[in-house]
Every structure is written in C-alpha cells, then in structure tokens.
Amino acid sequence: MLLLLSIALLMGGSLFVLLLGRNKKRINLAWLISVLICLLTLGLIYFSRLYLPSEFHLANWTPLSIFHYAPFLVINYQSWPYAVALITLVSTVIITDPSRSKDPQSTVPWAAALGLAGLQLLAITSGDALTLVSAWVMIDIVEFTYLLRLQSFSGNHGRMISALGLRLLSVLALIFATVAAWQVKSDFTLAEIPTSASLYFLLAAALRLGILPIYAPFLTNEKLPYSISVLSRLAPTISALTLIAYLPGEFLTLSRSLINILHWSALLAALYASITWLTRANLAAARPYWKIALSAFVVQSALNGNAQAGQAWGLALLLVGGEIFLFEPPIRRINFLPLIALFGLVGLPFTPAGHGWEGLTGTGFTWTGLIFIFAHAFLMAGYLRYILEASSTITGLEKHVRITFPLGLILILGSIFVLGIIGRPDSLLMKPWQPPVISLALFGILIGAGLKLGLRPPFTSYQQKIPGFRFLTWLFNGIQSIFSLSWVYSLGLWLVKPLRETGEFMTDILEGESGTIWYLVFIVILFTLFVTGINLP
C-alpha cells in the first residue's frame, strides 16, 4: 500500500504542480510543494523497508488461459535500493534547481520530473515482465514527447530518433525474452526468470543502458533544462539496472557466442568510457560516459553470475554520479561534498561499493578483472579532476538558495551511506580488499603522473602534455564509431537516399505546373482500359 501511495503521490503531485504553474505568482509555492512531495515520497519508500518484500496486484483478469498471472508490483531487496536512489535524485534535482535558475518562469520541469519519477517507480517495482514492458513503453512515449516539445526548434532530431529507436529495440528484446521465458514457465515472475531466457533479459537491459551498442545520449540542446537533462540520463537506466538485479547466476549453459559478445561489449565499453570520462574537455562533455562505464560494470557482474553484486555499481552510477552532475554551479567553497560522495565508489570493504568487486573479479584475478580495475581507477581520477575544477562562487545566489543547494547535495550523501549500511542483508560482511587496493594504487599513480606533468586545475593543458594524446583520441573515436553502429545508420541513409530523391522527383512532377496534364493522361489511360476491356495480367 505504501508503494501504491508513493506512485499516486508523484503522479497526482505532477498534475497539481503543473496547474499551479498557470499562475505565475505561485511559482515559488509550486516549487515548495514539489519539494514536499518528493520528501514525503522518500519517507514512504524508506519506511517500506520494514515490510520487504511486499506486493500489490493491479488487476485480476480472466481467462487465465491467455495470461497465467495478473500484473503486480513488488518492492524487495532488488528494487528497494533503486527506488530510494530514484526519489533521492528527483528530490535533489528539484531542491537544487533554483540555484541554476534565479527566476523560474515555468513549473513544467518540476512537474515533468515528478511525473517521470512516478512512471520510473512503476517500472522499478514491476513484478512481472508484462508490467515492465508497459512501463517502458509509457516512459518512452512521455519522455520523448516532452523532449520533442522542448527541442522543436533545434532543427536536428536525428540523434533523438536514433535514441528512440534503441529504446524501442530494448522493448522488443524484452518482449522476445518474455516469450522465450513463457516457453519454459508460463507463469514466471521477474524474481523467477528461467535460466534459458536470462541472457535475453540481460540483452534487453544492455540495450536500454546504452552499452550495446556504445551510445552517447543526445541531450545536448541548450533549450533543455539542466535538471531534466540530468534525470533523462540517469532515470531511464534505473529500471534496466533493477531488471539485471533479478537475473539468475547460471549463464554458462547458454549460448557462448552471445555471452562472448556481451563480455567484449562490456569490456570495451568500460575501458573506453572510463578513459573518455577522464579526458573530456569538461564535465558536460564527460557526463554520458560515466553512465556507460558503470553500466558495463553492472552487466559484467551479471555475466559473471553475480548480478546482486552489480547492484553496488548501479547505485554508484546513480548516486555518486548524481552528486557530481547536480553540483552545478560548481561552487568551490562546498566542493568537499562531492569529494565525500567519491567514498561511495572506492569499493573498500565496509564501504557502499565494497561488495561490487565480487561481481567483477570473483574469488580470483583474471585479465578481464584487471581491465575493470584500471577502468575503476580512471573513473575515480576523472571524478576528482572535475571536483578540483570547481571555480564558481556563491556571489549572485539568493540567501535561501545558499542553504537549499548544499542541502540537496547532502541528501544524496545520506542515501549513499544509508543504502551502504541497510541496502542489503550482507552489507557489513567482509568483501574482497585486493581489487580496490590495486585500484587506489593506480589512482595514486595517475595523480602522481599529473603532478609530474605539471597539470593544475582547470587542467586545460593536458592535451598538449600527455604523450600520444592525439593518437589515443583517434583510437577511441574509432572504437566508438564502430561499436556505436553509427555507420549502420549512415549506410541506411545512403541506401534510402536514391529512393527519397526519386519520390521527391515524382512529387515535383505531379504537384508542379504540369501535374494537371499528367492527371488527365492517367485518367484517359484508365478510361481507355475500362472501355476496351483489355485483360490485364
């Protein structure tokens, strides 16, 4: 019941805040109500921890010979941490939004954030595949309709359309996985995914996460509110991460070729995205690669038979990444807050990401595990770099914003450490310590190398001082151009171009000045055929 109340509160609150926005004098009241709705929802989600697991059946339809179960929602140890992360992010987005907009003119971004959070919470807590498919479709329709409205004057929708195509492909993959699971067990739930279909569910999640193919999001339009830009990068991944957390560990009996493809995709995505995250010109250009890299960590954990361990990397993706992304403007005086959040990524024993190493390295070292250790060190180095580049001041910010902005960031810190303590029953057990120690050593070497090269914030000269930087840039861009399948998109446009030009030529003929004559010619031909009664083949 708490879960249903949370979803209803977000969806109803979205509509109420949107109606308040019709009166410009109530903008501040709408912001306050949005914050209260988020905090109340977060309290309900935290309180639901006492009743895990709990279910809510949406409908009891008949006949059961068509669908062998009714759609239902469930909140358990797989979905509860991600539900907390989602509501925490939405709360922080709305709390900190006044710091990026001194005079808000519309409540649409806040209403959109609440509405999308309600739909995402529905997807996170889906207990069966049909409910999850429906939630994904609703999320994509609502999100892309809103984004098209905001970017209607950009004149370039190509990347948005290709992103929507990948989302739809992930939905089709999820439907295919559901059908494959029905062949084994007609009344399966997400908590009981058959082993023979588990790899297809992982494939659907990987497509939605953007690591197969390696895909950088399209959200670059200046008309897009910063808060919605952050949510649109992080929120769609949450339901896919939750789906992965449900996967069983027995992948070895499935197609080795498909498993190898996913292994290599995760490996390349983690290495490429982590290095790109470290070397981008600024945080705005680097943000997409944070999601790609840590999504690869989650997929790799599932492929190694420990999807539960991947949950640690999923939460780091959302909360640790959300801390640095929402650190905007990057005020130097409070840059210690994202620095504390980095503790949620280090992965030492008894830290929030401590049990994540079990999914990447298991009980022993492999060359793939070593590559992920390198990727982890690159992620931490890049995170520290963007913290040190903080140069803004509180000058120009209103007094209440100087209070609410750090409070929003502190809210994320609280969720990082709360989930690290009570998010899993085994959170306080001893975890592998060698991989994080090696990663921290590499992290120290990267810092030492930066100091040796004379790199100082804001690190604008690193391209000239790093040996072979141009070659590495060319190599990474080549990897992305191949594995992002952008060449397939270009090839399709090249093949379609002659057909499009032919169609335009025929349209010009029929709609031009001679179009009437051609219509008369066609009518005469048809009339002649009708009168003479010629038998056509």
How many strands appear in the DSSP assignment? 2
Q: Outline, from the CA principal axes?
A: globular
Give the distance, in angstroms, between the N- and C-terminal Cα atoms.
67 Å
Counting H and I runs of at least 4 residues, what is the number of helices?
A: 20
Q: SSE order in H/E notation? A: HHEEHHHHHHHHHHHHHHHHHH
As a whole number of angstroms, the C-alpha radius of gyration is: 26 Å
Main sheet overview: 2 strands, antiparallel
Q: What strand line-up does the widest sheet have?
A: 1-2
Q: Low-confidence runs (pLDDT<50, min 5 residues)?
A: none
Mean pLDDT: 78
The percentage helix is 55-70%
Approximately what portion of the residues adopt beta-strand conformation?
under 5%
Structural class by secondary-structure content: mainly alpha
Short précis:
With 537 residues, the protein is mainly alpha-helical. It is built from 20 helices and two strands.
Describe the overall structure.
The protein has 537 residues and is mostly helical. It has 20 helices and 2 strands. It has helices at residues 2-20, 27-47, 80-96, 108-124, 129-150, 158-182, 195-209, 226-245, 256-279, 283-303, 307-325, 336-341, 357-360, 367-388, 399-422, 434-452, 462-465, 469-483, 486-511, 515-532; strands at residues 54-57, 72-75. The chain has a two-stranded antiparallel sheet. α2 (27-47) packs antiparallel against α3 (80-96) and α14 packs across α16.
